[in-house]
């Protein structure tokens, strides 16, 4: 069983870190002005966080703090997968090749392996309410740093100073408004509220299901 868990963690590392590295080589093909620009996106950062955390667990398999961080990064990579597969991917410009191999690695396979590993890993400690709220920290960190870059008018690689349409604060909908122009139907603040609620919902579900398995295993 331990070998199976190690194999699963190895797959996470390969698909997360390997997927990000692969995406750098295909960046110009996908229309980015420079490969490093892809590192400015939540996709790359959430995969890097997950990959590094998983790599550390292979060397320090008994560090409880790493397992709590694993919970945070599993929630983040779930957000990456869901938002891309159901919101960004289907409506992306075909020039970015949304369903290319590196995109599948970082948006589909990496999240799937991470979630499976999270629920199978018997070393995950009991998760508390503070862990659930802490799950919002990685997305908040990303939104904060990306917002600073936005107001500094930094190009995210495709000629725009924002990574995602819902982070375009000068869109027709602005922060609090509404618009009929696709895809800026609602202001950025409403998207942030939705993503925060989604993060807390996923974190709560994961924590409750995992705690239930832990309690069942103690009987």
Task: Give your account of this protein's structure.
The two termini are 20 Å apart. This protein has 219 residues and is mostly helical. It contains seven helices and no strands. It has one domain (2-218). It has helices spanning 2-25, 42-59, 64-88, 101-120, 129-134, 137-151, 188-218.
Cα-to-Cα separation, first versus last residue = 20 Å
Which spans have pLDDT < 50 for at least 5 consecutive residues? none
What's the number of domains? 1
User: In percent, how much strand structure appears in the residues?
Assistant: under 5%
Specify Rg, calculated over alpha carbons: 18 Å
Q: Shape from CA axes?
A: globular
Q: What's the helix-strand series?
A: HHHHHHH
Task: Count the E strands.
Answer: 0
Q: Structural class, judged by helices and strands?
A: mainly alpha
Main sheet makeup: none
Summarize the structure.
The protein is mainly α. It has one domain. It is built from 7 helices and no strands.
Helix and strand arrangement:
Elements: H1 2-25, H2 42-59, H3 64-88, H4 101-120, H5 129-134, H6 137-151, H7 188-218
Helix pairs in contact: 1-2, 1-4, 2-3, 2-4, 3-4, 3-7
What labels describe this entry?
219 residues, mainly alpha
């Amino acid at each position: 069983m331990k070998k199976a868990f190690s194999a699963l963690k190895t797959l996470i590392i390969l698909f997360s870190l390997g997927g990000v590295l692969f995406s750098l080589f295909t960046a110009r093909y996908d229309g980015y002005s420079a490969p490093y620009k892809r590192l400015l996106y939540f996709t790359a950062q959430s995969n890097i966080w997950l990959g590094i955390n998983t790599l550390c667990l292979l060397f320090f398999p008994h560090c409880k703090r790493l397992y709590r961080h694993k919970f945070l990064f599993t929630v983040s990579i779930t957000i990456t997968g869901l938002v891309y597969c159901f919101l960004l991917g289907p409506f992306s410009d075909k020039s970015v090749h949304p369903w290319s191999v590196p995109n599948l690695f970082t948006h589909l396979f990496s999240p799937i392996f991470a979630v499976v590993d999270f629920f199978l890993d018997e070393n995950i400690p009991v998760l508390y309410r503070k862990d659930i709220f802490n799950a919002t920290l990685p997305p908040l960190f990303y939104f904060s740093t990306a917002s600073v870059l936005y107001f500094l008018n930094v190009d995210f690689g495709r000629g725009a100073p924002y990574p995602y349409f819902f982070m375009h604060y000068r869109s027709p909908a602005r922060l609090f408004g509404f618009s009929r122009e696709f895809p800026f139907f609602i202001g950025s603040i409403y998207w942030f509220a939705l993503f925060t609620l989604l993060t807390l919902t996923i974190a709560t579900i994961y924590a409750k299901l995992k705690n239930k398995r832990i309690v069942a295993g103690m009987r």
